[in-house]
Amino acid sequence: MEVLKPVDLVGDKVVWLDTRYIPWKEVWKETTDYKEVARAIKDMEVRGAPAIGVAAAFGMALAALHYEGEDVEGLLRRLREAKEVLANTRPTAVNLFWALERVMKRAEEATRSGSAEAVREAVVEEARKIQQEDIESNVKMGKIGAKLIEDGDVVLTHCNTGSLATAGYGTALGVIRAAWEEGKRIEVIATETRPLDQGARLTVWELKRDGIPVKLIADTMVGYLMSKGKVDKVFLGADRILLSGHFANKIGTYQIAVLAKHHGVPFYVVAPTSTVDPKITLDELVIEERDPDEVRRCPYPFEKVYVTVRDVEVYNPAFDVTPPELVTAIITERGIAYPPFYVSLKKLLEG
């Protein structure tokens, strides 16, 4: 299958697919300004933890490429400014901060040359490396995770974890793609994923594009289908995984995990090791709260169609946290982690 790259560095520009318009039309945008990349991340034109990390790295590349001075210290100041702007876009997805730290570290190492051009080249090279590594790790995760899918399985997935959420190919959707490529006759159940309908809009679009059988359901139908034995396995992604095995993912994940546990349905998390955060505890995990209008309105970028009273108060956390006792296993590009996760995840990171 052709790998769709939703965000890329083309020459001295960042080019991205505005996912807010999918599936109605494909709108590609471009910029030479890292602040515009930051806005695109904040407004969810680019979304999905790995894709956010890649976009942030490319934002840093723009800051370096379009710094007109030749003094190394001035360039480093510009990069630090860009890093702060990009870091303040979305607080939960750890790939964002991981990518920014990695590019900044490479820039600082390159200052030993005393050349601003060498720093620019190092930043661009590291950003492109992050993109390529993500695609490669997605393919590896796909092959590893596909071994857990049997011919004839019905797989439920939540939100979007495909090419549109990564540098290309996908995490949980990458596992589904790999199983399909192996010739396994599978069917996917995609949740709607309110309030922005990433499952209905993005996941269904990707699966239909690849010819993989998919059925769409409302988020409220998961328990009913599991009670009728219509779901064999759950595969979904993560925006941040703690060493304890707790993980933050799109709102609605926790209730799916509870239902899966109750009905004896295996529940798998698929994410690269860059999504594992060994530095913070559960108490330190920040859950992003988004614009209440995302819940009040239909998720159409073209017009503001309200589905409720316009001034009703709203809760709108973008993510929830699922505890490790509800997780069957965590699939990474380095292998599969099984409980206890504080042991298995640590081994994978060290490996």
UniProtKB/TrEMBL annotation:
Its EC number is 5.3.1.23. It is an enzyme of class 5 (isomerase). Keywords: Amino-acid biosynthesis, Initiation factor, Isomerase, Methionine biosynthesis, Protein biosynthesis. Substrate binds at residues 47-49, 90, 198, 249-250. The keyword Isomerase applies. InterPro entries: IF-2B-related (IPR000649), IF-M1Pi (IPR005251), IF_2B-like_C (IPR042529), Initiation_fac_2B_a/b/d (IPR011559), M1Pi_N (IPR027363), NagB/RpiA_transferase-like (IPR037171). Transmembrane segments: none annotated. The record marks 159 as: Transition state stabilizer. The active site is at 239 (proton donor). GO terms for biological process: L-methionine salvage from methylthioadenosine. It catalyses: 5-(methylsulfanyl)-alpha-D-ribose 1-phosphate = 5-(methylsulfanyl)-D-ribulose 1-phosphate. GO terms for molecular function: S-methyl-5-thioribose-1-phosphate isomerase activity; translation initiation factor activity. The keyword Cytoplasm does not apply. NCBIfam families: eIF-2B_rel, PRK05720.1, salvage_mtnA. PANTHER family: METHYLTHIORIBOSE-1-PHOSPHATE ISOMERASE (PTHR43475:SF1). Catalyzes the interconversion of methylthioribose-1-phosphate (MTR-1-P) into methylthioribulose-1-phosphate (MTRu-1-P). Belongs to the EIF-2B alpha/beta/delta subunits family. MtnA subfamily. HAMAP family: Salvage_MtnA (MF_01678). This is Putative methylthioribose-1-phosphate isomerase. It comes from Ignicoccus hospitalis (strain KIN4/I / DSM 18386 / JCM 14125).
